[in-house]
Amino acid sequence: MNFILPNPLIFAEVLTNSKIGKYRFRIGVYRVVFDLEVENIIMILDVDHRKDIYR
After folding, report:
1. pLDDT of amino acid 26
2. In angstroms, rounded to a whole number, what is the distance separating the alpha carbons of residues 21 and 53?
3. Of 23, 26, 28, 44, which sits with the fewest C-beta atoms within 10 Å of its C-beta?
């Protein structure tokens, strides 16, 4: 199932440590770190448990 949101950042938070990515989604105890490319394309950089994602 595909969903197209007018603003994909509506559920995202901006990261202060830009070495790993610019934004993150929180999905339960997991975090999805990503950057936003041209035309609202999300480039997923990492998915991991919240205790390990920022190490």
Report:
1. 93
2. 11
3. 28
